[in-house]
Amino acid sequence: MKAIHVPEEIFAIGESLIRFIDQEVVPLENANKAILASERTIYDDRGRFTPEVDALRREVRERSSRQGFYTMFGPEEIGGGGLGPVAAVYLNWLLSAHCGPGRVLIHPVVIPSPFTNGLSPVLTNLAPEVRERYLPGLASGEKTLCFGLSEPDAGSDVFAMKTKAVRDGDGWVINGSKQWITNGPYAEYAMIFAVTDPELASQRKGGITGFFVDAKAAGFSVVSTIPIMGHLGAEIGILSFTDMRVPDDQRLGPIGQGLKVALQGVNTGRLGLSATCIGLARWALDQALAYAKVRKTFDKPIGEHQAVQILIAGSAADIYAAETMLLDCAMKLERGDRALAETSMVKLHCTEAANRVFDRCIQVHGGMGLTNELRLEEGYRFTRSMRIPDGTSEIQRRTIARELIASGVNF
Ligand SMILES: Cc1cc2nc3c(=O)[nH]c(=O)nc-3n(C[C@H](O)[C@H](O)[C@H](O)COP(=O)(O)OP(=O)(O)OC[C@H]3O[C@@H](n4cnc5c(N)ncnc54)[C@H](O)[C@@H]3O)c2cc1C
Question: Whole-model pTM above 0.90?
Answer without folding.
Answer: yes
